[in-house]
Amino acid sequence: MDIEINYLNTLIERYPSLESVKSNISASFDIIAHSYANGGKLLIAGNGGSASDAEHIAGELMKTFAKQRNLPDSFITDIKKVDSEIAEYLIPRLQPGLPAIALSGHASLSTACINDIDGNITFAQQVYGYGKEGDVLLAISTSGNSKNVLYAAAVARVKKLRIIALTGEGGGKLKQYADVCICVPETETWKIQELHLPVYHCLCQMLENRFF
To answer: DSSP characters for 41-94?
Structure first.
């Protein structure tokens, strides 16, 4: 726990403007950590640069980020029983992951929604299909008003997911849907995105420390 607090304090030392959202970053960590501890997963939605952030976050959580992640002894024993030769290859390379899905990364589904229904429904469709009570939706929108992200958040509310919003100053309409809104103190898109990255890197570090 102390190490996790240190990560957060270091973030604020490096980016003093984020002091205003420190408590919300901590609350977001608690929500995601609780979900993971109970077998949940993280769904991440965003457009444009925020779609890249969604992929980035999933990548950091699904494999080693900053700490060595060791396979459980039980898995090592079981994979050896499946195939000893394959096990020899996998054991030093395979890394435990924290389940995270970037909703922007499914081209066939996304284009099918665009062609058959309406592109703005894509994230909502995935939340409806993937989401279960106890999961978390991380909704990223610099304005807080991206329609497809709002639709996903509305579905998440009905499906009883917890919702964390990562936005710019003010939070937009997305703020009213969120359990916690990390509204970084900038109004220009690129400046907002510059602050989003250290925020989610800090969350990834904290989560990795908690579970590995």
So the answer is: -EEEE--THHHHHHHHHHHHHHS-SSS--PPPHHHHHHHHHH-HHHHHHHTTT-
Q: Give domain 2-66+97-211's CATH number out of 1.10.101.10, 3.40.50.1000, 3.40.50.10490, 3.30.1780.10.
A: 3.40.50.10490
| pLDDT of 201 | 98
The two structure tokens encoding residue 171: 């939070």
The predicted structure's pLDDT at residue 90? 97
Cβ contact 168:143 at 8 Å: yes
Cβ pair 43, 161 in contact under 8 A: yes
Average pLDDT value for residue range 155-182: 98
**pTM, full prediction:** 0.95
pLDDT at 3: 85
Angle at 37 between CA 198 and CA 4, to 5 degrees: 35
Q: Are 52 and 59 in contact (CB under 8 A)?
A: no
Q: Is 26 exposed, middle or buried (0-12, 13-18, 19+ CB in 10 A)?
A: middle
Q: What is the pLDDT of residues 46-105, one digit of tens each?
A: 999 999 999 999 999 999 999 999 999 999 999 999 999 999 999 999 999 999 999 998
Domain boundaries, the chain: 2-66+97-211
Torsion region of 171: left, alpha or beta (phi above 0 gives left; psi -120 to 50 gives alpha): left
